[in-house]
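tokens incoming
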């Protein structure tokens, strides 16, 4: 399990995180509208949005790495119930040393053989870290799928690589298959963790006999996540392109830019400006001028979307 994490999963996870990091720099100056509750919110940059994804993956890598030392603790020499009955006094130390030499990993004797035989909490914890990565990947892939929805009737703020035709009945339709593939992997990993959690809880008295299903699900999760990280990076993330025209239109039409007016004209009056603009189908600027709340010039000075993405620099 440790070997699979270190050689198959972690390098691919780090590469995916770095790909998102490159997008953070690439998209740093693209101001867009944010969304909370799937509704318009205040602005941020596309770089900000992608920085959240990069950080999620960084944190996931750290959690997985932190689980590795505990997986290197062996109950070897505990024999039947942890007492070490019928073993030579030097057996455990010599076997652990030989296994460390053979595998290249710093294996250690478990601090308590009774615990190490009766449960598999270290694997359960590691599986939890894998599940957390799956949760992060699911959220990231689903966000990207939302942002790329369209091409004419969705959000349409991102363009994804067109990997293959996506519909047998709708000519020309291209689906976000790479995002969908990642989310299906994540669903499987979450299911594996549920199975592994139940198996980990079934250590009856001095021995957990569910190790085969624990090992099967843990190893499958590692394999699937490593493959998903690689495929998602190569076939989707590296080829993501922003649709600047649509991003700009959404930004300019959002009523939530009115938030910048609240410190100057008050929350209630700002809300009335937004309501007027929504009901009349006009811009916030037009509404503010029509209601004689602000002049057009004053509105332009106060409502600057780019400045709203970095308020502490003002």
């Amino acid at each position: 399990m440790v070997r699979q994490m270190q050689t198959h999963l972690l390098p691919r996870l780090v590469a995916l995180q770095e790909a998102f990091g490159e997008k953070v720099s690439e998209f740093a100056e693209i101001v867009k509208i944010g969304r909370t509750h799937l509704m318009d919110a205040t602005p941020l940059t596309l770089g900000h949005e992608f920085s959240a994804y990069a950080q999620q993956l960084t944190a996931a890598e750290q959690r997985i790495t932190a689980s590795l030392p505990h997986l290197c603790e062996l109950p070897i020499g505990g024999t039947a119930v942890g007492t070490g009955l019928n073993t030579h006094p030097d057996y455990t130390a010599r076997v652990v040393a030989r296994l460390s030499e053979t595998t290249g990993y710093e294996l250690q004797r478990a601090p308590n053989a009774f615990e190490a035989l009766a449960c598999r909490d270290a694997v359960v914890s590691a599986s939890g870290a894998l599940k957390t990565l799956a949760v992060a990947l699911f959220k990231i892939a689903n966000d990207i799928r939302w942002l790329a929805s369209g091409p004419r009737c969705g959000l349409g703020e991102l363009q994804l690589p067109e990997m293959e035709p996506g519909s047998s009945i709708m000519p020309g339709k291209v689906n976000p298959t790479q995002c969908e593939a990642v989310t299906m992997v994540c669903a499987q990993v979450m299911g594996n963790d549920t199975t592994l959690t139940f198996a980990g809880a079934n250590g009856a008295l001095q021995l957990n006999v569910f190790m085969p299903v624990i090992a099967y699900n843990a190893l499958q999760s590692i394999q699937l996540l490593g493959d998903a990280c690689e495929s998602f990076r190569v076939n989707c993330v590296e080829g993501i392109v922003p649709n600047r025209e649509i991003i700009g239109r959404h930004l300019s039409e959002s009523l939530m830019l009115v938030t910048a007016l609240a410190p100057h004209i008050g929350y209630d009056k700002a809300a009335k400006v937004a309501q007027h603009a929504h009901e009349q189908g006009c811009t916030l600027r037009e509404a503010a001028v029509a209601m004689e709340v602000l002049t057009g010039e004053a509105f332009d000075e106060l409502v600057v979307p780019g400045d709203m993405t970095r308020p502490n620099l003002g």
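note: DSSP finds 13 helices and eight strands in the chain.
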